[in-house]
Design brief:
Strand content: 15-25%
Largest sheet: 10 strands, mixed
Radius of gyration: 35 Å
Number of strands: 26
């Protein structure tokens, strides 16, 4: 028994379960996507801050040396300062071929530096506890481990923690020893200051500069920059959430609009028995409220489930997931829920407003659905043989109702734009990470002094290969400096005019433009490994030697000194088979004057293959092209042998890296000039970071495809179902079941075709706008996202086809007479 007209809202939702479920799923997915986007960007922002805190200053925003008492008093009373501490560098002691430097810090300084020091154990809490670098332990005592007592400078310390392994300290053979110190003299050490995030960093810096010399004040630029969200992150998050909001509005609007049209007679009857416009609007808006409450609750649960699932995947896949976990932030979840609620109300307001204005007499008589159209007379046109009858009917059907056509393809357009935009953002990030992703992550690096002779190197090579855990050994040679003459038609258009890249010079009294070039020699073993990374051409050592062939490294970077932009991408448009001229750079110091090169100094080489990146270089060389070739070709170009700078070693078992390093040290002896660097931990961190981005990227794409599929299926299904009477009428006047099926399928495919074409256009346009926004700081070559566009086109057609099968099955089962009798 009904006690109020408001109960009609719940009754209608229960009586139309399928549409209610579709609408709920759309809202739930939208809320989940908005929340996940917010949590993703927030986690990225937090992760960037935590990564910056791993620098030498830890979480300190400012470091001040040579401070005075007045400045110290100012720090103590400044409300912008969250905390401060003092740390200082002590004496350095030489032990067994390495240097160990003392570091002293107060409790607060240790807390500030915490994120940049121990990976295991704890920080020292008194003057008898200490933290050491792990690689230093064997030099102090062969079996030294956490908890043991050791002696340094005639003092006993308990080892309570270990520093994060650092390749730079290993290369320099200079370790660190951290101990606690409570009392410091005024001016001793560095004053580490941690500011509140709301503080004006520049203003605080200027205030301290007035109390001491400017040279004494050092800002933690990396951390301070990380704390302020980047423009590209804000733009990307805003556009992504904006697209999802618009998509949700379309889903809800479409659902409620069709709901109102279907209930036109019912709403008219309510108006005829005294219901006011306001009451009718309340019925529709209450439906929106019920749907919102249920969808927001389920959407929050869905978001939490997605985040926990991604974190569980990372826990199982990543070696160290601590810095990459997605953190649940209830502020973001609440804001996302409120945004979704507002979106639902906006989407349902216009159908509710239309429902309130329904005329009772017209609604009861069903005359609202009748429209008078002008008959267009076509004179002077030849009668053409029509295309297939179902296809021609489908074309007329989608053109006959522009509003329905627009609403239907709008969901396809938005889904296509969403997919292309996210794909572009992910591809852009991965492009910037490409050298790191594609570089060979060797486990151990050995740096050799330049004075070693060929006999010693050959003997060393044989000794290293005999070590059991060594899988592959790669020789590393010093790069030779050259210039490459680059014709105008081979220059990158975006880089033309960049004088720091394309330098002007003279060759045979002719003006030329050239690029700084590195030519690197690879031994046969390393060239064989490089063949796996070839994107164009082929690496054949004999052919390289015979034709003076070189391998072009495509990925590079250039900086425009005028704009400050950094360009990422190829520095030329050279292709496989191109013959180029290179000139050996014999200048020790860079010169601003144009240098003339004689004919006999010019060498001609041929590009045999192209690779994306140098296997042993994780960064792009700035303003410099890189060529890789064989040892023989380098010898013929330079008339000298390449200098071996070290070995890169791949291991069979990564867990035995420390044991292998000890074996290497035994084989090579305790030569202080030979540096052995353990890369296993760093490689693991880099791999985890790349894998983390890929997991999130594919997770987002999966959610985007899901929400897009629901949007398309919802709109097309409802669009066809509301025309059941019209389709029944076609069957009643003689249209066969086969032709009706074809017509409906053609309609779905036409929706998919036109929607995807327009979606691809707007998606490419939006990706270009994002490219413009991102290129404020970093520049790269924009290309049309062909792959994402092709996937969008095929997927839209496939989903549109599947979407019409659902209502088509029901329409085929309908009794024509019963459908025509429906009011």
């Amino acid at each position: 028994m009904m006690r109020s007209y408001k109960q009609l809202s719940q009754k209608y939702l229960r009586s139309n379960v399928k549409r209610t479920v579709l609408t709920l799923v759309g809202i739930i997915l939208a809320l989940s996507l908005i929340t996940t986007i917010g949590l993703f960007f927030n986690s990225g922002y937090t992760s960037k801050i935590e990564k910056a805190k791993k620098g030498p200053l830890g979480s300190a925003n400012i470091s001040i040396e040579n401070y005075n008492q007045k400045l110290l008093d100012t720090v103590k009373s400044n409300p912008d300062i969250a905390s401060y501490g003092i740390a200082s560098q002590g004496d350095t002691f030489h032990i067994d071929g390495i240097d160990i430097s003392y570091m002293y810090a107060t409790h607060q300084a240790l807390r500030i530096l915490k994120s940049s020091i121990p990976v295991q154990g704890k920080l020292p809490s008194n003057e008898k506890e200490a933290v050491l670098e792990e690689w230093v332990l064997p030099y102090i005592s062969p079996n030294l481990k956490l908890g043991d007592i050791f002696t340094m400078n005639e003092k006993e310390y308990k080892l309570v923690g270990l520093f994060t392994p650092s390749n730079s300290t290993q290369e320099n053979k200079s370790g660190r020893l951290l101990v606690y110190k409570n009392e410091f003299k005024v001016g001793e050490g560095d004053l580490l200051i941690e500011l509140h995030q709301s503080a004006n960093f520049k203003e605080v810096e200027n205030r301290f500069t007035l109390l001491t010399n400017k040279e004494n004040v050092k800002m933690n630029e990396e951390l301070n920059k990380a704390i302020k969200p980047s423009l590209e992150m804000i733009v990307a998050a805003t556009i992504s959430i904006g697209i999802v909001v618009i998509s949700t509005i379309v889903i809800i609007y479409n659902s409620f609009q069709i709901s109102v049209v279907e209930r036109m007679k019912q709403l008219g009857l309510l108006r005829s028995i005294g219901a006011t416009q306001k009451q009718i609007r309340k019925i529709v808006m209450r439906e929106a409220t019920f749907l919102s409450i249920i969808a927001i609750f389920l959407g929050i649960l869905c978001s939490i489930f997605v985040v926990l699932s991604l974190n569980q995947i990372m826990l199982k896949i990543l070696n160290d997931p601590s810095g990459t976990m997605i953190q649940l932030d209830w502020r973001i979840i609440c804001v996302s829920s409120l945004l979704t609620l507002i979106t639902v109300y906006i989407a349902s307001f216009f159908p509710a407003f239309r429902a309130g204005r329904i005329s009772p007499l017209l609604a009861i008589s069903s005359r609202l659905s009748i429209k008078k159209d002008k008959i267009k007379k076509q004179k002077g046109k030849k009668i053409k043989k029509p295309i297939s009858f179902p296809l021609s009917m489908a074309l007329k059907n989608i053109k006959r109702n522009p509003n329905r056509y627009t609403v239907t393809i709008l969901s396809i357009i938005i889904s296509s734009v969403l997919y292309i935009t996210f794909s572009f953002l992910i591809d852009t990030y991965m492009q910037r990470k490409q050298p790191v992703d594609q570089s060979l992550k060797t486990d151990i690096s050995i740096m050799l002094p330049s004075y070693l002779g060929e006999n010693n190197i050959n003997h060393m090579n044989q000794d290293l290969q005999q070590i059991p855990n060594v899988k592959k050994l790669y020789k590393q040679y010093e790069a030779h400096p050259f210039y490459t003459n680059i014709p105008e038609n081979k220059q990158i258009e975006e880089l033309q005019g960049n004088q720091s890249l394309y330098e002007k010079g003279k060759s045979n009294n002719q003006a030329v433009e050239r690029v700084k070039t590195h030519v690197k020699a690879y031994d046969e073993n390393t060239l064989e490994k490089l063949t796996e990374s070839v994107t164009s051409g082929k690496i054949e050592i004999q052919k390289l030697n015979r034709e003076k062939g070189v391998i072009l490294v495509k990925q590079a970077a250039a900086k425009d000194m005028n704009t400050g932009k950094t360009y990422v991408g190829p520095l030329s448009s050279f292709k496989v088979g191109d013959t180029i001229q290179i000139i050996q750079n014999q200048q020790k110091e860079p010169s601003t004057e144009e240098v003339s090169h004689k004919q006999d100094k010019i060498e001609t080489v041929k590009i045999a293959a192209i690779v994306e990146s140098d296997l042993f270089n994780r960064s792009r060389t700035l303003d410099t092209m890189t060529f890789i070739t064989s040892e023989q070709v380098v010898h013929s170009l330079t008339k000298s042998s390449s200098t071996l700078k070290g070995f890169e070693i791949e291991l069979n078992n990564h867990s035995q890296a420390k044991t292998t390093i000890l074996d290497i040290q035994k084989q090579l002896g305790r030569d202080e000039s030979i540096q052995i660097i353990n890369n296993v931990d760093e490689n693991s961190t880099i791999q985890d970071e790349i894998l983390y981005i890929k997991i999130l990227a594919y997770g987002f794409i999966a959610v985007i495809v899901l929400i897009g599929s629901v949007n398309i299926i919802n709109t097309i299904t409802v669009s066809i179902m509301m025309r059941r009477k019209e389709l029944a009428a076609l069957k009643s006047i003689g249209m066969s079941q086969k032709d009706l099926k074809k017509m409906v399928i053609y309609e779905g495919l036409l929706y998919g075709f036109f929607g995807s074409i327009q979606g691809i256009f707007f998606g490419c346009l939006l990706s270009y706008i994002l490219y413009i926004a991102v290129s404020n700081t970093i520049s790269f070559e924009w290309t049309i996202p062909y792959q994402a566009s092709f996937i969008t086109f095929i997927t839209a057609l496939l989903i549109s086809y599947l979407a019409v099968l659902i209502p088509l099955r029901k329409i085929q089962k309908d009794n024509t007479i019963d459908v025509l009798r429906e009011g």
